[in-house]
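re: ur question from yesterday

yeah so i grabbed the chain u mentioned. its 432 aa long if i counted rite. heres the sequnce exactly as i have it in my notes:
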Amino acid sequence: MLPQNTLSHAHKLKLRWMVTLSTVPLLGVVTAFGIMPQTVFNTSEQKTIIEEIALPVNAETGSTTATFWRNERVQRGDTVAELLRRLSVDDSAASNFLLNDKAAASLRQLSVGREVQSEIAADGSLLALRYLNNNGEQVVIEKNGGGFQTSSLPAQLEKRVFMRTGEIKSTLYAATDAAGLSDPVANQMADLFGGDIDFHRDLRKGDKFTVVYEVNYFNGEAVRSGRILAAEFINQNRTYRTVYFQTSSTTGDYYTPDGKSMHKAFLRSPIEFSRVSSGFSTSRFHPILNKWRSHKGVDYAAPMGTKVKVTSDGIVALVGKQSGYGNVIMVNHQGRYSTVYGHLSRFAAGLHRGQHVGQGEVIGYVGMTGLATGPHLHYEFRIDGAQRDPLRVALPDGAPVSEAQKSAFLEGTHELNDRLAMLRNTKLAKLD
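ran it thru and got these C-alpha cells back, copy pasting raw so excuse formatting
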C-alpha cells in the first residue's frame, strides 16, 4: 500500500487533466488540452541589445543632416510656446522670433483648427515653419544664417465640389447646420434667394433646399468654403432655382435656368435674419408719442451694432440726424427709388453725401437714436417720394444673360441643373 502523501503516476495525470479542464470557462477557450509529463521547455536566456545608429554628419558644419517634419493644428487657448512644444521644437532663438517679430504676427493670429508644419533638425532646432494664414496665403518661415526670414505667396488651392440638401424644421440656420452646410455657404444661399423669399416671414416647416458648391483644399485639408455653383429652394411648394455662369474671364453672376438674373435691383431686407418688430401700417400706436399715427416703414429688431447694408446701388443723399429718425442715411437709386435707414448708432467710416454705394455694402449700424424704445432699424422704401411696403412691393429685376451668350449659358449650366434635379427628392442630409 502506497503512503498517503504519494500519488501514483496515473493519479497525477488525472489531476492534471482536471485542473486544465477546470480553467476553460475562466479563459473563455473551448478547446481542451493536456500536459504531458516530463515536458522539456527551452529555458535559454534571452538578451535585449540596444545599439545607437549614427546619423549622417555634414562635413562643413559638423552637424547631423537628418531633418524631421511634424504637423499640428492650432487648439483653443494655444500659446506659441505650447504649439512649438507639440511640434517638438526646442529652439530659444526661434521661440523669440515667433513671439515678438512682426513678420511672424500671422502665426500668432491663426484661427483654431489651422494646420502648422515644422521642419526640425535632430537637436530640435527649427529649420522651417509652414502654414496658411487667415487670409489664405501660404507663409513660410525659414532659418537664414543666424536668424529667420518670412515669405508668403498665394496658396495653390484645389477646388472640390460638394452637394448638400436639407429641410426646414425650425429656422434656416438650424436646417443648414443639420445638413452640414457651413455658415458662409448658408449666407450665400440666403443672399441669392433673398429677392424672392422673405426669410423673416415666408419660411415654412417642410421647405427644402439643395446646394452644389465648392470647397477649397490645401495639402488635402479643407481651408474655406467657396462659391455656390447651383442651388434650389422650395418655399411653400414654389421652386426657385439658380446657377452660376462665368460671363467673362474675370466676372460671373447667378441666373435662373432660363437666363434671368437672380439679383433683384433691391435686396428685400437690409439686415440678415433679424425679426420684424413693426410692419408697414397706416395706423399704429406710437409707444413714445402715445398716439395713433401711420408707420410707413418696417422696423427690424436687432442687437446694437448689427451691420446695416444698403439694399441697392445708389448715391448717398443724406448722412446725419433728422428729428425722430435719429442718426439716418438716405440713398437715391435709379431716379425713381430711394431708401431710408433710421435710428442708427453710427455710420460706416468715411460715409458722406454724394458717395456712390454698392448693393450689400455696409453703410451703418443698428442703434436706438431718435424716437426709439430699443435697438432696431427703421427702413423705408420709396417710389417717387411715396413710402411703399418694402416687404410687399414688386422689386425690379437685374439684367438677364445677353443674347450673345445665351447658347453658351444653356450648354455650360446643363450639368448643374441635372445635379439639382437628381437631388430634388433625396432625403439624405449630406452627399459628398
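noticed a couple things. The chain is about 15% helix and 35% strand. also The longest strand covers residues 221-235.
anyway ttyl
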